[in-house]
């Protein structure tokens, strides 16, 4: 059941109307107003008989007119669930009913400022037990040990049920101290989930392992020289691998200037440790400055560890209360595919570009997490380089040959993250489908597109027209029936 203070479906509708001075509330960043349930979505094409389960996308959908500058990282989480069944395709969306959202509903207006004004603390009389920082749980959704967890890297996970209803924050039976990354890595062979959290205050990095039953069995503090933004990492069968890149939090600037700054003079390091290791086991390898927001995968062959992701040479995340958000967004250029390597024997490490196509949202067939895999998927800028909402192309890479295949979404099309749904009858790594929520400006609509992962260039084999558009958001996952 939802918490007692959780707003109900009937009395929660977004009041956001004024986007004139809020670049992150324009176009398809504007929230949808309400929660709906539709059992018979229109389908063009044929849904494969093996595609049974739910594609669930998480993203921001602010319920109230924001206080001050709004960044899309601030918005209340909303889950959009598209379920493929024997009787057709259904859609349902639900706000994640955080304690902070409950406090705002009780007040009838926004109570919390956003990241750009993080030092503007809310009135504790209005927040009650929700605390001074809202956990919107707006970034990702995963499943581990029978629990579905909505994630936001600034706080603990929020558990939801299979109907997308909120159950509340989850702290692993009181064992989790601090936050949890939005990008844990689950080993499909052992069932272990490895994850971390970063902090503005020491210890700047914590690392955790939950076993296959969901019990938190390993937690260690790891030393970093400065508080940095670390969004993702990778695992091999034996290692946890971190990228310590110089996206540094400047505490003295909080509320008065850029809260995160790129400081290449600090250097970039790859950190490698055993998956059940401690700070004493952590080895660092210096490389050329750069940042990876999202990785594909990694694996070890002997002493050599290889991994790949979308590398940014000069990142900017647009969180500065002194600068207009649209100007910050214009500077936020995408990454490009790159391969990294570490030789644990010689102590050498490096990277090389693997393609010049700008893009991100790196995904694989998750059954290959931590072991060598051949195929990698990305959302890309097939046209002009722009911001996240301008992704217009789905890309599949064959990493054994270096070849790529692409599908362009067409005029006015904007793709989200491609999620791989495996074919239950398949045997090859790419036996399955790619699912993507594609927004079309012309009709102000979203089509959930299904592509054969073996033939991306052929385009969708099925399009599901959503009963309401799905605003631009972050990450999605497939939950098989």
UniProtKB/TrEMBL annotation:
Chain positions recorded as Fe cation binding sites: 183, 231, 294, 475
Cofactor: Fe(2+)
Coiled-coil residue spans: none
GO MF terms held by the record: carotenoid dioxygenase activity; metal ion binding
GO BP term, example: carotene catabolic process
Keyword annotations from UniProtKB, A to Z: Dioxygenase, Iron, Metal-binding, Oxidoreductase
EC number: 1.13.11.-
Entry's family note: Belongs to the carotenoid oxygenase family.
Protein's recorded name: Dioxygenase
Organism of provenance: Candidatus Neomicrothrix parvicella RN1
Organism lineage string: Bacteria, Bacillati, Actinomycetota, Acidimicrobiia, Acidimicrobiales
């Amino acid at each position: 059941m939802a918490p007692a203070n959780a707003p109900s479906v009937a009395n929660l509708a977004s009041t956001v109307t004024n986007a004139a001075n809020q670049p992150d509330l324009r176009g398809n960043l504007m929230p949808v107003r309400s929660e709906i349930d539709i059992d018979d979505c229109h389908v063009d094409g044929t849904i494969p008989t093996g595609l049974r389960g739910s594609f669930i996308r998480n993203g921001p959908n602010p319920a109230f007119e924001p206080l001050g500058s709004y960044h899309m990282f601030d918005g209340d989480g909303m889950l959009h669930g598209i379920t493929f069944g024997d009787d057709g395709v259904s859609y349902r969306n639900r706000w994640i009913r955080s304690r902070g959202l409950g406090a705002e509903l009780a007040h009838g207006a926004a109570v919390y400022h956003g990241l750009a004004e993080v030092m503007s603390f809310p009135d504790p009389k209005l927040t009650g037990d929700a605390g001074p920082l809202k956990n919107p749980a707006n970034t990702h959704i995963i499943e581990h040990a029978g629990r579905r967890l909505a994630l936001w890297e600034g706080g603990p996970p929020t558990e939801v049920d299979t109907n997308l209803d909120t159950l509340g924050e989850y702290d692993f039976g009181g064992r989790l101290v601090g936050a949890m990354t939005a990008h844990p890595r689950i080993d499909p062979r052992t069932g272990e989930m490895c994850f971390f959290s970063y902090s503005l205050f020491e210890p700047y990095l914590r690392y955790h392992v939950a076993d296959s039953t969901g019990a938190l069995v390993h937690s260690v503090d790891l030393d970093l020289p400065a508080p940095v933004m670390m969004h993702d990492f990778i695992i091999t069968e034996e290692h946890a691998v971190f990228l310590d890149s110089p996206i540094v939090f400047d505490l003295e600037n909080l509320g008065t200037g850029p809260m995160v700054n790129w400081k290449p003079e600090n250097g970039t390091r790859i950190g490698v440790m055993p998956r059940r290791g401690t700070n004493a086991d952590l080895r660092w390898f210096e490389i050329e400055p750069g940042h990876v927001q999202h990785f594909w995968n990694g694996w070890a062959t002997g002493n050599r560890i290889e991994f790949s992701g979308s590398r940014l040479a000069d990142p900017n995340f647009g969180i500065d209360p002194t600068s207009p958000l649209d100007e910050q967004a214009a500077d936020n250029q995408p990454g490009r595919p790159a391969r990294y390597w570490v030789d644990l024997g010689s102590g050498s490490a490096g990277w090389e570009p693997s393609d010049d196509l700008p893009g991100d949202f790196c995904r694989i067939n998750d059954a290959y997490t931590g072991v060598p895999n051949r195929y990698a998927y990305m959302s890309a800028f097939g046209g002009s380089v722009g911001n996240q909402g301008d992704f217009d192309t789905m890309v599949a890479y064959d990493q054994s040959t270096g070849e790529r295949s692409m599908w362009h979404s067409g005029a006015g099309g904007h793709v989200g993250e491609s999620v791989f749904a495996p074919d239950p009858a398949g045997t090859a790594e790419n036996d399955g489908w790619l699912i993507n929520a594609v927004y079309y400006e012309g009709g102000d609509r979203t089509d959930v597109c299904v592509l054969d992962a073996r033939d991306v260039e052929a385009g969708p084999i099925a399009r599901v027209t959503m009963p309401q558009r799905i605003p631009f958001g972050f990450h999605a996952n497939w939950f098989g029936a």
